Amino acid sequence: MAVTHASLAHSTFTAPELIRNFCIIAHIDHGKSTLADRMLQLTGVVDSRAMRAQYLDRMDIERERGITIKSQNVRLPWNATNADGTMTEHILHLIDTPGHVDFTYEVSRSLAACEGAVLLVDAAQGIEAQTLANLYLALENDLTIIPVLNKIDLPAAQPERYADEIAHIIGCDPDSVLRVSGKTGMGVSELLDRVVAEIPAPVGDPNAPARAMIFDSVYDIYRGVITYIRVIDGKITPRERIQMMSTKATHELLEVGVISPEPVPTKGLGVGEVGYLITGVKDVRQSKVGDTITSQAKPATESLGGYKDPNPMVYSGLFPMDGSDFPVLRDALDKLRLNDAALTYEPESSTALGFGYRCGYLGLLHLEITRDRLEREFGLDLISTAPTVVYKVTMEDGTEHVVTNPSDWPGGKIRDIQEPMVKCTIISPAEYIGAIMELCQTRRGQMGGMDYLSETRVEMRYTMPMAEIIFDFFDALKSRTRGYASLDYEEIGTEAADLVKVDILLQGEPVDAFSAIVHREAAYAYGTSMTEKLRKLIPRQQFEVPIQAAVGARVIARENIRAMRKDVLAKCYGGDITRKRKLLEKQKEGKKRMKMVGRVEVPQEAFIAALSTDAPSNKDGKK
């Protein structure tokens, strides 16, 4: 039963035993945001006039693509029925999490702020790779799992079959798997009652010095940094001075409140409550995700365990089209990192593209979304270079180099090259096993095992080089399995590999922006494709331009851009052939001299077309 939330603005501290903190975890496109919409309506925090689909997806890019990128938290009041038939008002803190593998760090931070998780599975599609990955994350955090089958109103739904699948994996009774429909609202009130009954209340000492964990933050142009926290011990009240335990920085709290689902100021936050703080600070480095907040007057001695920083999986250069936008790009990345803690960046320069940043991402969709957000939210025009991974190169003399960019590749004799490896989990209908095995073998994959989840669905595990899956592996997998396969991957260390650096030479001069590090067997294919592409993109000059791909000193591919021919015989109207020969010889000498001193001008458009990373698009449909 719903209650109105007008009283929330003036609420006092809620007793911890009446609080339930939980999140919704699932694979992409299994209906998390739609289910969250029904919960918002059922609890009365959003009235029917203000309601819109995917209410918690705040960004335009999320609504266009139909995917959740940012976790969103919201406070819901709920009257739960007790065993004796009486009603008790509880406070539920719901966190809606992303489903895509590239945003796993968002999910892991959300799980750390909860005691329970609703595991959502599509009743028409069943368990997929990211469902399992998120389930294991929740179990590592010792969360109470409530299994739920969503979309049972669909004609293709098979709730009995997939309830057995879930029961087999979690070890529960198939009858205990809830059946709900986020679209129609069927079963949602029973789910909220189950959350109250099964998820444990938060534990903490209300009289101890205040300790609160920062699990997210966002930058507001007017109000500065808005920090989202979960209170563990003590209480946080407005106008008191707080201290960040890692940096020792102190601030005065201007406002404390809860999200319900818009920000509502309150008189403070107590044990187990989730809310936000505003200190008016504009410096984005002051609020670090995973830091512990305490009171300056009565500080805690021990900080809470922070989050493990994620390791970037993919690196790519970001350069502004206009060189004068470099300071704008620097400020934009600072502000975006506040909202996306998994993003890393450091300055770099390129002879071809000027000054920019080398950015680290968790995956290719993360790269695409980050570039899209920088262009939309900060009005930048950007070029992103081809994505690469991190290699460790050991020389004959024992020195080690970490290579994130082909231009960092060391010269001299190399003893050993280590490349990052990932463990891939692919879940697919059984009829596509052959196509998947063939694809993985062409990408240097080694099979680690295969299990049947049911008679028709199989889970395959492969160990593969990270470099082989970051570009178009997901697209190739989807096309070979008609869109039915799902992919999840995690980093498992490094392995020795036979890798080479392929240089692209124009007029004998290497162009650093087009270089790439590839496996020796793939070097020829990369060289021929890049030289062909550049032959079409670079305009013809007054002299012939050779485009070469080389490994070390050995040229492995070549294309020529033919010279523009000026008709020097146009003014000759008849006359002796020797006159014409003389003019042609003079032109030939001039072209030879121009070739010696001439420099090939590569237009910006050619760089953008050759380096563009628009090919991969992991858009898995709408929620």
Characterization of the model:
With 623 residues, the chain is α+β, with helices and mostly antiparallel strands. The chain folds into five domains: 6-198, Rossmann fold; 211-295, Translation factors (Elongation Factor Tu (Ef-tu), domain 3), CATH 2.40.30.10; 314-385, Elongation Factor G (Translational Gtpase), domain 3 (Alpha-Beta Plaits); 392-496, 2-Layer Sandwich (Alpha-Beta Plaits); 500-611, Alpha-Beta Plaits, CATH 3.30.70. The protein is built from 14 helices and 29 strands. β28 and β29 (554-561) form a beta hairpin. The longest helix has 21 residues, at 577-597. The relative contact order is 0.09. Mean pLDDT is 76; it is low at 1-11 and 613-623.
Summed up:
By secondary structure, the protein is α+β, with helices and mostly antiparallel strands.
CATH topology of the largest domain: Rossmann fold
As residue ranges, the low-confidence spans are: 1-11, 613-623
Judged by helices, strands and strand pairing, the structural class is: alpha+beta
Sheet with most strands: 8 strands, antiparallel
Strand content is 25-35%
CA distance, first residue to last residue: 26 Å
* CATH fourth-tier homologous superfamily of the largest domain: P-loop containing nucleotide triphosphate hydrolases
Shape: globular
Helix content: 25-40%
**Strand order, largest beta sheet:** 10-9-14-7-8-13-11-12
Number of helices: 14
- The count of β-strands is 29
The total domain count is: 5
Radius of gyration: 29 Å
- Indicate the CATH class of the largest domain: Alpha Beta
How confident overall, as mean pLDDT?
76
CATH architecture of the largest domain: 3-Layer(aba) Sandwich
